[in-house]
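Dear colleagues,

As part of the handover before I leave the project, I'm documenting each prediction I ran so the next person doesn't have to rerun anything. This entry is a single chain, and its sequence is reproduced below.
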Amino acid sequence: MKKQTIILAVLFILISAVTEAQFYGGGGFYIQRGYRQPYPRPYRQRYPRQRQQQTYHPTVNLSFGYGYPNLDKNYFPEQFNGAVNAYKRTNYNQTGPITGALDFQFSRYNSIGVIGTYGKVSVPYYDFNSNGETTLFNGNVKSWSVMLNMMTYFPTYESAVSPYIRTAIGINTRNENYTYPDGSKAVIGGDNLTDLAYQVSIGARFNFSPNAGFFIEAGYGRYIASGGLTFRF
């Protein structure tokens, strides 16, 4: 009886050992007891790649434009009293101002240079004492201005459009003449006057190619609106 008990105990131990081995590793693949699977790798957040800007090369910009209206008409007085009694009407005949600018763009967002304008405007004056439609004399103003021109470009990834702010300040020289139809002077004085010239505008340059395009802008100073062609060298 004692012998049988010993044999049964040995068999039980062997069966237990085999069963444990099958449970932890079957088919020849053994997994060590106490093994833990590694934690999953943390999720890497993906950020969109920022577009790398190319190295900027300075350029020289040349532009020609036409502004509207010619604000030199504001120099004309509403009326004259004294030796000549006359008043003006609003049927102005005006040209320009025609503009030309040359700028050195030393960075992607800034340039500095000069801008010049030329324009002329005329207006008829009529006699206070006459109800007719005949012009008594004409007022004429021709003006030239030269200004320091500073451009600030807004950052943009769109190479076809370059929005900007223009700030310009300088001097304006104008010539005023008031003459009768026969060419004689109607009003004495007003020749070759000099005063402050300025222009503040916001606009955009539209590029046909890397070296040519056109611009439009709106502001106040020498003109209210302007547009024209621009070239880059």
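The chain has two domains: 1-36, 59-232. The chain has a mean pLDDT of 82.

All the best with the project,
I.
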